[in-house]
Amino acid sequence: xxxxxxxxxxxxxxxxxxxxxxxxxxxxxxxxxxxxxxxxxxxxxxxxxxxxxxxxxxxxxxxxxxxxxxxx
Length: 72
Known about the structure:
Blueprint: H1 2-38, H2 43-51, H3 54-71
Helix pairs in contact: 1-2, 1-3
């Protein structure tokens, strides 16, 4: 039972931040497209702002790996 809970925790550690990141990137992407259409020089800033939420998934993946390694 303990292994199943750890596996569920690892899945949630990746899944929940992935959903939040998808929502954030959808909002940032649509706003970024409008901004770049009006001011093309803001393209670099918008790419950085689009990449920032992705760190949540990366950190969730690291936590999941740590949990899975605890299973072994």
